[in-house]
Amino acid sequence: MRKNIVAGNWKMNKTLQEGLELAKGLDAALKGKSLNCDVIIGTPFIHLASVAAAIDTKVIAVAAENCADKESGAYTGEVSAAMVKSTGAEYVILGHSERRSYYGETYEILKEKVQLALANNLKPIFCIGEVKEEREANKQNEVVKAQLEGSVFNLSAEDFSKLVIAYEPVWAIGTGLTATPEQAQEIHAFIRSLIADKYGKEVADNTTILYGGSCNAKNAKGLFSNPDIDGGLIGGASLKVDDFCAIIDAF
Ligand code: 13P
What we know:
The structure is a single chain. This protein is α/β, with parallel strands linked by helices and about 250 residues long. It has an eight-stranded parallel β-barrel with strand order 1-2-3-4-5-6-7-8, surrounded by six helices. The protein is built from twelve helices and eight strands. β1, α1 and β2 form a beta-alpha-beta unit. It has one domain (about 5-250): TIM Barrel (Alpha-Beta Barrel). Bound molecules: 1,3-dihydroxyacetonephosphate (13P).
């Protein structure tokens, strides 16, 4: 059966020292607890190796927030999937709407990144979701379908099974607006049906689909109690131990 996951995405927050403090605080808070979900923290590249060394990665897995679309070589400033893997990270967040909109990441670029991540034994957390205008025009289903078809439906069923999907409506990210549990459940079920059409029911049933967008301690339970919502990808509320733990406790 699919896993429940609560994953943090720190984005461009925390110095190395602050990040280590946060990771160690979370590690201490979760120590010895019996958890009903897997826990992941997505950190900036520079934190990865130190964070992975400072925590029990069997309890809290580490994710990068991005990786390069090239294998290696003269790409100044880029960080390859192999480099990410060498830090002890297990996951990589790819296709976040902030990467798509601010850094021009196209379906093709993301397709390369996903393939390189998988080739380096990293598990992609692949983000999809519509912007406000698309939701208002009731186009959210076609948007997420195109995003999946454009970057990940080329994969074999075996490779696709290594992905976690995160549905993040762009209008809900960092805005305090959350999709209602009904809105989120509806589109999560649609996403699962697309996966079933492409890869069959078993793969679809085993795919973890996270919700992201102003998820917090107050609304997590209402979202996670839906059959097709398998956890959350958490931005702002992952930056404080207590807030993040309260979301984990929603399971
Ligand atoms: P917020 O939880 O801050 O809305 O961010 C969500 C997100 O983008 C996680 O990737």
